[in-house]
Amino acid sequence: MTESASLSAGIADRYATALFELAREAGTIDRLESDMDALAAALRDSDDLRNLTDSPLYPRAATARAIMAVALAMNLSELTTSTLGLMAQKGRMFVLGALIGQTRRRIAEHRGEIAAEIVSAAPLTDDQRARLEQVLRGAGDRTVRIEARVDESLIGGLIVRLGSRMIDTTIASRLARLQNAIKEVG
After folding, report:
1. What residue ranges define each of the domains in the chain, with the CATH number in brackets?
2. What digits encode the pLDDT tens for the residues 88-145?
3. What is d(CA 148, CA 44) in angstroms, rounded to the nearest whole number?
4. What are φ and ψ of residue 172, in 5° steps?
5. Inter-residue contact 157 to 170 (CB < 8 Å)
6. I need a surface site. Which of 57, 66, 83, 176 has the fewest CB within 10 A?
7. Is 76 exposed, middle or buried (0-12, 13-18, 19+ CB in 10 A)?
8. In angstroms, rounded to a whole number, what is the distance separating the alpha carbons of residues 84 and 123?
9. What is the longest distance spanned by two Cα atoms in the chain?
């Protein structure tokens, strides 16, 4: 991990920890989860929101006003809204994606769930999703919560991230391994 990625992860971790603990104490974990889902969807679907959170060119005050307007329009909880405002004031909006992921992981751990991120070349069918949940659950008694997304550049196969483990069965990675094997022989 690069130094800047490590720094970003640390910043996101501190905000996620505080946000989760405050929601747990207030008994509003379900609302926090709803807020994280809504923010993740908004980041995924809005180029303008991604630009606002990622660009260092906007002044902090303008970013704070804009993110507060977005939070109010999305009807996010007071806790999430105030956290986003604080992040904007401190120039920390660039970690929003990581904050969402880390907060979701804390919620899953709190509920005894295992969060699995699945990246596929095409959307998963209900049957594929059910089989993946069954395989990922294995012998454990924890519920698997799949967060799936599509990356058409994969051509085929899956990338599965379960905790700190990653399994890459994509055609692109298979071709890369084959290419390396050919280079070693030649």
Report:
1. 3-107 (1.10.520.20), 114-185 (no CATH)
2. 999 999 999 999 989 998 998 898 887 788 898 889 899 998 888 888 877 566 788 7
3. 12
4. -60, -45
5. yes
6. 57
7. buried
8. 31
9. 63
